[in-house]
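can u do me a favor
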């Protein structure tokens, strides 16, 4: 009954026989015949073929639930076997937002792959809600995020500390009176700007400037709103975007000021037409963690990745 469960599951996942067949590298008639054979064996249809997209029948739902339990059992056995080997096979799935997927994880994954070249590493991009859902249903081993996940559901390992800066287009005349607060690109890159000799700028000074903000709900947006509120003003938002890197590029066109992670600034070339400022307040500081599910069997692959992560963390 469950010999060909992966075929049923792929049709369920894609809600299409044709797409599932492409993913499985078999012909659609062959896939349909296999599904039909399972349905004949069970005595009930698994899919309602009258709907578009394809939907599960009640029996189909029960079959998928059972198949997912079997997949988890198979995964546990595979993980156990992998732990008895020298990590010449295995997989690791990591989820991340655009910022971490583009600028933080690549060198870390490279370092891990150099040490364990036969381990497959799969990287998934998404927002916090999407990634937490995937972590919860075991689709991901780790999520790297600066958002706080429920500690009763997830364990976490600290990767680094992150700080939010203000990047302001150079053409605004306000900079003339703020030279003592301006940060060099090099001081951001080597994090020397965090030293107390570099003062934080009074944020209210920029209350009349146009701001580029991330979309509501994003942690950087929440923190930016809070920083402005604590400084006694509501920002004049002229543009809302979904990604920090996009907001950063928009600011570099002289459009408006934006709140930006020092991680992103340090990973990209300096924009000569932007001026950077250090910010004060708890909202300007956050931590980046690798999260993994509580009570999930931690494979040796996961353990070795955390070791590599901590080794790299000490060099940041």
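np, heres the sequence
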């Amino acid at each position: 009954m469950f010999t060909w469960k992966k075929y049923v599951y792929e049709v369920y996942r894609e809600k299409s026989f044709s797409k599932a067949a492409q993913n499985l590298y078999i012909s659609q008639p062959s896939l349909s015949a296999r599904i039909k054979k399972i349905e004949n064996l069970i005595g009930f249809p698994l899919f309602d073929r009258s709907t578009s997209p394809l939907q599960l029948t009640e029996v189909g739902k029960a079959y998928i639930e059972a198949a997912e339990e079997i997949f988890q059992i198979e995964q546990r056995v595979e993980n156990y076997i992998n732990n008895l080997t020298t990590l010449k096979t295995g997989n690791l799935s990591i989820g991340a937002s655009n910022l971490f997927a583009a600028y933080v994880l690549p060198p870390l994954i490279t370092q891990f792959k150099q040490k364990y070249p036969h381990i497959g590493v799969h990287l998934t991009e998404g927002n916090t809600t999407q990634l937490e859902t995937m972590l919860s249903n075991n689709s991901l081993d780790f999520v790297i995020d600066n958002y706080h996940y429920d500690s009763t559901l997830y364990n976490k390992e600290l990767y680094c500390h992150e700080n939010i800066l203000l990047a302001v287009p150079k053409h605004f005349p306000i900079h003339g009176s703020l030279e003592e607060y301006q940060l060099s690109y090099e001081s951001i890159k080597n994090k020397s700007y965090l030293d107390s000799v570099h003062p934080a700028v009074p944020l209210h000074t920029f209350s009349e400037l146009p701001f580029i903000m991330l979309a509501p709900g994003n942690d950087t947006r929440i923190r930016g709103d809070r920083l402005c509120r604590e400084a006694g003003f509501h920002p004049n938002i002229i543009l809302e975007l979904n990604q920090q890197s996009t907001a950063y590029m928009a600011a570099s066109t002289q459009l408006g000021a934006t709140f930006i992670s020092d991680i992103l600034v340090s990973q990209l070339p300096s924009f000569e037409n932007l001026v950077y400022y250090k910010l004060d307040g708890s909202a300007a500081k956050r931590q980046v963690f690798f999260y993994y599910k509580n009570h999930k069997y931690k494979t040796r692959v996961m353990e070795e990745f955390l070791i590599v992560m901590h080794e790299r963390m000490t060099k940041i």
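The longest strand covers residues 154-169. hope that helps!!
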